[in-house]
Design brief:
The protein has five helices and no strands. It is an all-alpha fold. The termini are far apart. Functions as a two-component phosphorelay mediators between cytokinin sensor histidine kinases and response regulators (B-type ARRs). Plays an important role in propagating cytokinin signal transduction.
């Protein structure tokens, strides 16, 4: 699947006081990627490519995708990192394109999920009489 147990753990942290906690976490994740992805692209276009710098940026993405449970994104990031370690730029670029596709797919799926959650509303809790 797209998400692992880390996602469930994040969901468990949501409460009625902040029912949109998970959505906020993922909004931050995708916002961070708006700067990371262009930075990765720029590093790949440098001549010569700074594979150490590229790996540093990719590890940021790997860390954030791992911490939120984005399994397919993490797998494509690992694949891109592996190609960078081999200094295989063409394969790294191809994996990076697939990585961007996985991010878009995840964003789309989560968008629908969060929309359904908003429509359902937070769980109503019975309050004891005062």
């Amino acid at each position: 699947g797209y998400l692992d147990d880390f996602f469930v753990q994040i969901e468990d942290l949501a409460s009625n006081d902040n029912p949109y906690f998970v959505e906020e976490i993922f909004t931050l994740f995708f916002r961070d990627n708006e700067t990371l992805l262009p930075n990765i692209q720029q590093e790949m276009e440098k001549s010569p490519v700074d594979f150490v710098g590229l790996n540093r940026i990719l590890h940021q993405l790997k860390g954030t995708s791992s911490s939120i449970g984005a399994t397919k994104v993490k797998a494509k990031t690992n694949e891109t990192v592996a190609h960078c370690k081999e200094e295989n730029l063409e394969s790294a670029k191809a994996s990076f394109q697939e990585l961007k596709g996985e991010l878009e797919c995840l964003k789309e799926k989560l968008g629908r999920y969060f929309q359904m959650l908003r429509q359902a509303g937070p769980d109503d809790k019975a309050m004891p009489p005062q």
